[in-house]
Amino acid sequence: MRQPTYYELVYAVVKLIPRGRVSTYGAIADFLALGSARMVGWALNKSYTAGGVPAHRVVNRRGELSGRNHWPSPSMMQEMLEQEGVSVEDNRVKDFGRLFWSPAELGENFEIHI
DNA sequence: TGTTTGACCACGG
DNA sequence: GCCGTGGCCAAAC
């Protein structure tokens, strides 16, 4: 075995975002307490296709789909969110304040599954 | 090996 | 509300 790399930690957290909710780069970075929000975005860039990581549930702090341009199609991210019941309007998550989910809700019981 | 690059964020003016 | 700046640190080159 080896130590999980930073982006594997990010994937693990992103996978825990509940269906129909969204989280932010900053919240994840803050929860991991390792670095910065930029690294979270960078990590997702490397692996938005790395099996089973719901990267579409991660948006920036204003609820904007800042990563949409990195998808095979820019509209794909929005479509996936809407499939889960998250309304998106003008590249922004509608009712972002209500749908926002913080990994801090997990408490201290966070386990990594790689 | 040093430098550059990021799907960002908080802060000050 | 906008704009510039600094911070953050792993990977790529």
- Total discrete domains: 1
User: Please, how many helices?
Assistant: 5
Please state the overall shape, judged from the principal axes of the Cα atoms.
globular
Helix content: 25-40%
* Element-level helix/strand string: HEHHEHEEH
Radius of gyration: 13 Å
How is this fold's topology laid out?
Blueprint: H1 6-15, E1 23-24, H2 25-32, H3 37-47, E2 58-59, H4 74-83, E3 88-89, E4 92-93, H5 96-99
Parallel strand pairs: 1-2
Antiparallel strand pairs: 3-4
Helix pairs in contact: 1-3, 2-3
This protein binds a DNA duplex (13 and 13 nucleotides) through α2, α3 and β2.
How would you describe the overall organization of this protein?
By secondary structure, the protein is mainly alpha-helical. It has a single domain, classed as Winged helix-like DNA-binding domain superfamily/Winged helix DNA-binding domain (Arc Repressor Mutant, subunit A, Orthogonal Bundle), CATH 1.10.10.10. The protein is 38% helix and 7% strand. It has helices spanning 6-15, 25-32, 37-47, 74-83, 96-99; strands at 23-24, 58-59, 88-89, 92-93. Strands 1-2 form a two-stranded parallel ribbon. A two-stranded antiparallel ribbon has the order 3-4. Strand 3 and strand 4 form a beta hairpin. The longest helix has 11 residues, at 37-47. The model has no long low-confidence stretch (mean pLDDT 87). It binds a DNA duplex (13 and 13 nucleotides) through helix 2, helix 3 and strand 2.
